[in-house]
Design a protein that fits this description.
The complex is a heterodimer of chains A (256) and B (272). In chain A, 37% of the residues lie in helices and 23% in strands. Chain A is an alpha/beta fold and 256 residues long. In chain A, the strands form 2 sheets. A 6-stranded mixed beta sheet of chain A has the order 5-6-7-3-8-9, with helices on both faces. A 3-stranded antiparallel beta sheet of chain A has the order 2-1-4, covered by helices on one side. In chain A, strand 8 and strand 9 form a beta hairpin. Chain A starts with a strand and ends with a helix. The mean pLDDT of chain A is 91. Chain B has a single domain, classed as MetI-like fold (Orthogonal Bundle), CATH 1.10.3720.10. Chain B is flat and about 95 Å long. The chains are: A alpha/beta (256), B mainly alpha (272). At the A-B interface, strand 5 of A face helix 7 and helix 8 of B. The site of magnesium ion has 4 residues of chain A, from helix 1.
Chain lengths: 256, 272
């Protein structure tokens, strides 16, 4: 299933957040959206999945989702959004409960999702007992359990420390290689975008506009830090976001 | 010492860094609670025994105990306590259920919020016991007017607590559920209700103590049976030993209610 955004424009009060953003995400690719904090990335992602109505423009999907898909457009949130009074298992089960299916299949889906993120032995545990990385893996399991056609990930690693981030990035790459899901991956981190994205969409600072789209035509396992292609992609992206980042940084500190 | 190496021993005596973070962390010392009660009892007993306080104003603890044993054994206590507990239970349950339901309405729907919330806010500051005479006129002097007073007194704090709880539920969790297509009533049941539960339980605590106050007052105004009526009658007969026994029963009742709520809290809020 493809995801198509046409001329998305959005504003809060008088403040324009997104200005004429158009984007097509093709089935099976990971599109990273890179931009400085406050440029409207989260807003754009909420609009893509129908959690917010844009002031202008429309979002379409094209093509049928896979047969097993229960929730075509599925989010992974930066703050995990795990329900504190439900165990990991119950959290993963929640989005399945309203779908008509045999209890056994529901349980099988939960078990397989937990197994794919290596959380099987923590099924009965409450979220507060988990480390940050495990929380995000639980939230990824919840997303996998509905077999999404398109994953919408909003800075899924930003709340984690650096080592955990590396490990989870490896997990994401492994998961993508297993199932070749389609994803929009929002980040303000250049390294993450280069590591994961097949295309990197660079947004300008507020109001968010597409500055450029950089293609990274390399399989994930050939993206070593030292590889010339990776270095080149990083340099191109850095030159695109450097000035924006500096200005955005100053703007935020001016605003207090 | 070479120039490029940082650090080095400074001459002078070593001074230990003092600990500065003491206090502001009170904990419970075992047996102190029991000792305090024993001390108060002893003071009471000695002051009445020695005649510092007239026996008429404050009977001796053993007299209070024997009058408690008396009313407990001759069936008076059961009669009065039974009447009180029945009113409390019916009145509180009614008020709490309706209050909870209205609180959810106010927390979830714009229409209910605009219509019911101002009304509840207007009712909230009325001392509910002032309405008892009106309820007696409407509903008669019997049980219903007392139960209605209690229910009414429980209703508004329960609405406010529930509404506050519903309002404080993490919107991120609700958005998450919506993003997975979870139906409205499932969200209410699985996310909003448990999320509001801490506030509902603290509302339960507050409203239970209000209910006991109203119960006693209503029974003093017009009831044949009930702990409030018993206390009032003992006062009229100047039987201070009976009176204090009755007050202690009220204290025990409040304590028991708070223990029960505490039990529910531990059970329902285990995830915290
Ligand atoms: N619900 C909202 N109401 C008002 N302003 C908002 C809201 N959500 C986001 N904003 C503002 O819109 C801008 C873009 O926000 P966001 O999309 O969260 O940026 P990003 O995810 O790129 O950091 C920010 O300035 C933010 O303060
Ligand atoms: Mg964001």
């Amino acid at each position: 299933m493809d995801l198509i955004a046409r001329s998305i424009t959005h504003s809060y009060g008088g403040m324009v957040v997104l200005d004429d953003v158009s984007l097509t995400v093709r089935s099976g690719e990971i599109v990273a959206i890179l931009g400085p904090s406050g440029c409207g990335k989260s807003t754009f992602l909420r609009i893509l999945g129908g959690l917010e109505k844009p002031r202008g423009g429309r979002v379409f999907t094209q093509g049928e989702p896979p047969a097993k898909t229960l929730n075509p457009l599925t989010y992974v949130f930066q703050d995990f959004a795990l329900i504190p009074w439900m165990s990991v298992e119950q959290n993963v089960m929640l989005p399945l409960e309203h779908h008509p299916m045999a209890d056994a299949e529901r349980r099988a889906r939960v078990a397989s999702a937990l197994q794919r993120v290596n959380l099987t032995e923590f099924a009965a545990v409450y979220p507060r007992q988990l480390s940050g990385g495990m929380k995000q893996r639980a939230s990824i399991a919840r997303a996998l359990a509905v077999e999404p056609a398109i994953l919408l990930m909003d800075e899924p690693l930003s709340a984690l420390d650096a080592q955990t981030r590396d490990l989870l990035m490896d997990d994401l790459i492994r998961l993508w290689n297993e199932t070749r899901f389609t994803a929009v991956y929002v980040t303000h981190n250049l390294a993450e975008a280069v590591r994961l994205g097949h295309r990197v969409v660079v947004l300008s600072r507020r109001p968010g506009r597409i500055r450029d789209i950089v293609e990274i035509d390399l399989p994930h396992d050939q993206r070593a830090e030292s590889s010339p292609d990776v270095i080149r992609a990083r340099e191109i992206l850095w030159s695109l976001i450097r000035e924006e980042a500096i200005t955005a940084d100053r703007e935020i500190s001016d605003a207090g | 010492m070479p120039d490029n190496q940082a650090g080095g021993a400074t001459p002078g005596a070593e001074v230990e860094v003092p600990f500065r973070a003491s206090g502001f962390a009170p904990t419970r010392v075992p047996f102190v609670a029991g000792a305090t009660f024993a001390a108060v009892l002893a003071l009471w007993w000695i002051s009445t025994k020695a005649g510092w306080v007239s026996e008429f104003a404050l009977p001796r603890p053993d007299e209070v105990l024997s009058s408690f044993v008396e009313i407990a054994s001759n069936g008076t206590l059961v009669k009065h306590l039974g009447a009180s507990l029945q009113r409390l239970l019916i009145g509180w349950t009614l008020g709490a259920l309706v209050g909870c339901a209205v609180g959810f309405g106010v927390g979830l729907s714009s229409l209910a919020r605009s219509s019911a919330l101002p009304l509840v806010s207007a009712i909230f500051p009325i001392p509910k016991i002032a309405l008892l005479p009106l309820f007696i006129l409407w509903l008669g002097i019997g049980e219903i007017s007392k139960v209605a007073t209690i229910a009414f007194g429980v209703f508004s704090p329960m609405v406010i607590a529930t509404f506050g709880g519903v309002d404080s539920v993490d919107r991120g969790l609700i958005r998450m559920a919506q993003s997975f297509g979870v139906p409205y009533w499932t969200i209410v049941r699985r996310i909003v209700l448990p999320g509001a539960m801490p506030a509902i339980l603290s509302g339960t605590r507050i409203s239970a103590s209000i209910a006991i106050i109203l119960l006693t007052a209503a029974e003093m105004i017009g009831a044949q049976y009930g702990i409030g009526a018993m206390v009032l009658a003992s006062g009229n007969l100047m039987q201070t030993d009976h009176l204090i026994a009755g007050v202690l029963v009220l204290s025990a009742m409040g304590f028991a209610v708070s223990q029960i709520i505490g039990m529910f809290e531990r059970r329902l809020l285990r995830w915290r």
